[in-house]
Amino acid sequence: MLVTGAAGFIGSHTCVDLLTAGYRVVGVDNFVNSSPRAVERIREVAGPAGANLEFVELDVRDSAALSKLLAVTPVAAVVHFAALKAVGESVALPVEYYDTNLNATLRLVDALREHGPRRLIFSSSCSIHGDVDVLPIREDAPSRPTNPYSRTKAMCEQILADLCVAEPDWHVVALRYFNPVGAHPSGLLGEDPRGTPNNLMPYLQQVAVGRREFLTVFGDDYPTPDGTGVRDYIHVVDLAEGHRAALEHLADAAGFRAINLGTGVGTSVRQLLEAFGAACGHELPYRVAGRRAGDVAELYADPSHAAETIGWRASRGLAEMCRDAWEFQRHNPGGYDGAGA
Ligand code: NAD
Ligand code: WQD
């Protein structure tokens, strides 16, 4: 398997899952949002199977480097994680986001048209839907992305769907993740964002370990049971297993298909604060502030399509997500490189 963005949060966990399931993995990354340490950790966590990881540092937009790699290293399928992913940053740097996310996908498709395989899993996001009218979110809900990041994901999905119409020998699955959190239970792999975390769980992790003073709760006046925002948090190891299930399914399904990877369970900010406090053994300080621009009250998946098509269902609950995230954070208080920010 070729895995792009292999050193990132979801990519690193997926590499471990694929290696321990017996696959040979070629990982690539340019470390724009990750550390070479993550590659060492993948090998360590995978144990003897770690020897089946080949890693190449490259930018996926570099067609020549990709072509050279695929010419000498044939792979059975590709999982394409490499992208920039911060919603707020994408509003400030739209050109950089369109450049990276669209060109990485387009150049990868070029290389696969030349060398094969025509089998691709694409990392998409529930945020392509924007404000939804109907919950839980099904795959056929309208696509109305509200920021450049989410538009890059919707555009890539469209490009891949059009490709599958024009060239029917392609097998493509866009996996739409809800809110990936947690870490590998070993405490060796986890989420290590650069700078101040944008997302709730990594922020909470850093509050728990004393790197941040308190959590700012963005709004407690939403029309939800406790007034705080509700999301569908999914354990990153469940997510990794979802990629393997989709890869195994690619063999028999040509064309383009989008599949939600979520749990179907909504959790509020207050519920997550409580669950994380229980996992780390102390209450976490927080202050309630106003709503964050662009946030919606509630989002959670209808995960039934994944169960029907690829036989996958999330099996890890909130307590396990918090336990594993805490295990990673307390063993790596300053992240992989120890510096922190
Ligand atoms: P991440 O930033 O941890 O991982 C992405 C990896 O891609 C990083 O290691 C980065 O260095 C690498 N990368 C970026 N541009 C590259 C390029 N041009 N060439 C080579 N490598 C490059 O993010 P993640 O959370 O692991 O997300 C993985 C994928 O899942 C992304 O496509 C993201 O948009 C998508 N996604 C993430 C979430 C989430 O909340 N984490 C939700 C939905 C979708
Ligand atoms: C979750 C909840 C916040 C931080 C984003 C992207 C989405 C996907 C996942 C990539 C909300 C609240 C947060 C904080 C808070 N990524 N919050 N204090 O916004 O659901 O989704 O990440 O594809 O595309 O949009 O995730 O973790 O930022 O927020 O109160 O310091 O936590 O208001 O209710 P979000 P999040």
TrEMBL record:
<keyword id="KW-0119">Carbohydrate metabolism</keyword>
<dbReference type="InterPro" id="IPR005886">
    <property type="entry name" value="UDP_G4E"/>
</dbReference>
<comment type="similarity">
    <text>Belongs to the NAD(P)-dependent epimerase/dehydratase family.</text>
</comment>
<keyword id="KW-0299">Galactose metabolism</keyword>
<dbReference type="InterPro" id="IPR036291">
    <property type="entry name" value="NAD(P)-bd_dom_sf"/>
</dbReference>
<dbReference type="GO" id="GO:0003978">
    <property type="term" value="F:UDP-glucose 4-epimerase activity"/>
</dbReference>
<comment type="pathway">
    <text>Carbohydrate metabolism; galactose metabolism.</text>
</comment>
<dbReference type="InterPro" id="IPR001509">
    <property type="entry name" value="Epimerase_deHydtase"/>
</dbReference>
<keyword id="KW-0413">Isomerase</keyword>
<keyword id="KW-0520">NAD</keyword>
<feature type="domain" description="NAD-dependent epimerase/dehydratase">
    <location>
        <begin position="1"/>
        <end position="262"/>
    </location>
</feature>
<dbReference type="Pfam" id="PF01370">
    <property type="entry name" value="Epimerase"/>
</dbReference>
<protein>
    <recommendedName>
        <fullName>UDP-glucose 4-epimerase</fullName>
        <ecNumber>5.1.3.2</ecNumber>
    </recommendedName>
</protein>
<dbReference type="GO" id="GO:0006012">
    <property type="term" value="P:galactose metabolic process"/>
</dbReference>
<dbReference type="GO" id="GO:0005829">
    <property type="term" value="C:cytosol"/>
</dbReference>
<comment type="subunit">
    <text>Homodimer.</text>
</comment>
